[in-house]
Each structure stands twice: as structure tokens, then as C-alpha cells.
Amino acid sequence: MSAYWPLPPTPSARFEIPLAQVTALLQKLGLSGRHAVAEDLLRLVGAHVPLAQCTIFSYEGQGRPRIVAVGDRARTQALPRISQDYVARFYPLDGSQQVMQAELAAAQKAPPSHPHILLHRQKGEDIAHREYREICYELPQVAERLAILALYEGQRWLSVNFYRGLEHGPFDDAAIAAVEAFAPLVVQAVRLHYAGHVVHNELAELLLARLLRRCPELTKRDVDLVRGLLAGLATEGIADRMGIEVSSAQTYLKRVYRKLGISGQRELLGLLLASEAGAP
Do 158 and 24 belong to one domain? Predict the structure, then answer.
């Protein structure tokens, strides 16, 4: 399981946090540029502790975790792919899984105002699985990870992971004390950020379900195109997400608009928000 412990009630270290940095962090919570939050946390905590990377995951039930955000101090461009490998293949081997299971009851009893926050250390040498160790620790040259774990709404764990590079060495007592001091702010910020994304994603799916009821002839590709628009993507972003040419995305969007009897995004928004017949 590696070493873990609950956050001390009184931090052993205190830091003055510049208001501008906190404001910059709060401005990004729940916004579509979700990875900016991990980058800001990396800068905020990294001003006091040498850090290489930050990843944020949500663990919902027994399924695969969700990547909430990633931040990288230009070590490798592979962090998004490494994170994908982790959620697809390696997360059951992570020692934090055992920590979350062992502490679930205590975390569920804690009030939202004082969450049960845990810290979990894991080095590459703690991992017996060769591929997991190589891909998630040796490839990005990570010396150690310190995870901040907290339960969200009694059922979803949020994990904020700070990584030290080989050039930094493992977390020493001073570095751990600094992360502990920032942990309450980190947890509350990530909770707000995660809640904003959950609301945004659930609202988008509700609107798409309403659209399908009105226009059942829409294909899966049609729905994916509209989902991209609801995510705030331009045509180029939709094409990249769907793995098609920009010209093809433009053609498909025009076909969707024709099916819906509209001419563009403004009318699409009006259609999505209009009351359904017979609805209160």
C-alpha cells in the first residue's frame, strides 16, 4: 500500500499565498480549459516545493477513473498519454486504491466542511508491475508521487497527485509539510472545479437527450457533432476530436442543421433550450 496518513489537524508549515495566484486559480474552476487548474496548482505549490507534474483523477465506483486535469512543467509531452494508460490499464495496481478502500467509512462520516483528507506516497520501487513502473514512473523520470485524496459527495474520490522528478529526489519532510499546508485549499479548489465539470457535462447530455427525442433520425455522428458544439469546440476542434478532416466536419454540420431545420449555432441553441411539447 505504501505509506499514507490523514492530514494533520494543524499544519506544521504556513505560507503566505499571493492573492493574485489564488484569484487566477479560482477563475479557472469549472471552465472548459480544465487542464489549466492542474497547471495553476503546479505553479502554486511548486513555488514552495520543487515539482515536475500534477495529475487529477476522479474515482467513481468500481469503474475506470476519469482524468480531470493534467499539468506538466515541460518534462515530456507524453503526460496525457501516460494518464490514459493509467486509467485504462494500471489504476487497479495503484496503492491509493487500497487507501481509498480502507478509509472509505471514515471519509463518509466526515462533514463536507471538514473532509477526511489523506496523503499517500508512492515511489517507482514500490510498484512490482514492470509496465506500470516503467510507463508511469521511469519514462517521465519521476522519483516519487504524493497524492492528496478526499471523498466527494460521499461516493467519488478525488485524487490530486504531485510528482517529483529524479532531479528533485523523493519528498523530504519540508516538502511534505508544504503539501500538507496547501492540501485543504487544493481539495476545495478541485471539488469546485470537478462539480462545475459534472454540471456542465450532465447538462450537455440532458440537452442531447432532448434533441434526440425531437429528432430521432439523428445518427451517432450527428450527436457527436452537436456534443462538440456544446463543449465549446470550433469546427477544427470537433474535427480533431472525431478524427476527420475539417472540411468533412463542416459538411456534416451543415447536414445536421438541415435535418433540424435550422441554419446555424444560434438557432441550435434556441432549439435545445426550447420547452418540449407537453412539458411543464
Answer: yes
My answer on whether 109 and 232 are in the same domain is no
pLDDT per residue as tens digits for the range 206-231: 788 888 888 899 998 998 899 888 87
Instruction: Name which of 258, 202, 262, 194 is nearest 227 in CA terms.
Output: 202
More confident residue, 102 or 205: 102
Closest by Cα among 86, 77, 153 to 122: 86
Q: Looking at residue 81, which CATH number applies to its domain? A: 3.30.450.40
Write out the H or E segment, with its range, that includes residue 67: strand 66-72
* Distance, CA of 176 to chain centre: 23
- Helix or strand holding residue 52 (H, E): none
Can you read off the three cell numbers belonging to residue 11?
499544519
Distance CA 111, CA 225 (A): 41
**Cβ-contact 183, 7 below 8 angstroms:** yes
| 153 confidence band (pLDDT: 50, 70, 90) | confident
Q: What's this model's pTM, rounded to 2 decimal places?
A: 0.72
Cell of 39: 497547471
What distance in Å separates the CA atoms of residue 129 and residue 126, rounded to the nearest whole number? 9
